Amino acid sequence: MLRQADYNDIDSIVDIHLATLSDGLLAKLGKPFLKKVFYPFCFQSSDVLLMVYELQNKITSFVIYTNNSTLFTHRLLQKKVAIGIAVLKNILFNPSLLVDILVVLKGFRVQLHHGYEDILKNNQAELYLIGTEPAFQGQGIGSILVSQGLKEFSKKLNVSTCLVKTSSFKANQFYLANQFTAIGTEYRGKQCFQILCKQTETIE
Ligand SMILES: CC(C)(COP(=O)(O)OP(=O)(O)OC[C@H]1O[C@@H](n2cnc3c(N)ncnc32)[C@H](O)[C@@H]1OP(=O)(O)O)[C@@H](O)C(=O)NCCC(=O)NCCS
């Protein structure tokens, strides 16, 4: 069953986040940061929709959609004290954290395929994060989060196009299998993120 998440789901969501997105900056900032800062911040943001998929009372997947990913990230980065503490606590175990932070602060370079040049100017709605617990992957749950979930998101927040960015080959295959179209590349330091998009008005 797909449903909107609430505060009581944070522990389960954080566990799935750490199990599936451990290479990401948010995970590197540590479990306390995710539990006490990032996810409460998602629930406090009116432009964010967080959904979970439940199977026999167990949360197996989560997805975060945001109406304006640039603004959302910008507001998150304003939590300088909480981020600073998380960096200090985790930098010794994970020196790459500093590089990741510098890359975010430096900004990104985007190259869009021909014909898609205007898309980012007019659309900032984004599938921000998605994860299915490893034991439940490949059972079609992720696809429900990007079909039914995206439908709910587009209705709730009046969105017509949804972007997604990923550096993972597997995730890229997953989005293509779910009718997203590759529209370009975002360069973050040495990392390359594929940018894909899906028109939500075409969802039936
Ligand atoms: C991406 C992810 C959310 C997909 O969730 P899922 O519940 O396994 O997705 P589904 O079972 O609905 O997969 C649907 C289709 O996507 C593709 N796909 C899914 N996982 C794949 C994989 N590991 N490799 C290649 N293709 C994959 C397949 O085409 C699959 O269709 P099929 O089962 O008919 O072959 C999950 O693999 C995951 O949590 N990955 C780690 C986190 C991540 O990379 N998130 C995205 C970046 S934010």
How would you characterize the overall build of this protein?
This protein has 204 residues and is α+β, with helices and mostly antiparallel strands. It has one domain: Aminopeptidase. The protein has nine helices and eight strands. It has helices at 10-20, 25-28, 31-44, 69-77, 80-90, 96-106, 119-122, 141-157, 169-177; strands at residues 2-4, 48-55, 58-66, 109-112, 126-132, 161-166, 181-188, 191-199. It has a four-stranded antiparallel sheet, with helices on both faces. It has a four-stranded antiparallel sheet with strand order 4-7-8-6, covered by helices on one side. It is globular and about 45 Å long. The mean pLDDT is 92. The protein binds coenzyme A. Coenzyme A is lined by residues 20-21, 61, 129-132, 137-143, 166, 168, 170-171, 173-174, 177.
Properties at a glance:
globular; binds coenzyme A; alpha+beta; 204 residues; 44% helix; four-stranded antiparallel beta sheet; Aminopeptidase
Strand order of the largest sheet: 1-2-3-5
What's the total number of strands?
A: 8
What's the CATH superfamily, by name?
Answer: Gcn5-related N-acetyltransferase (GNAT)
| CATH third-tier fold name | Aminopeptidase
- What's the helix-strand series? EHHHEEHHHEHEHEHEE
Number of domains: 1
User: What is the strand content?
Assistant: 25-35%
Which oligomeric form is depicted? single chain
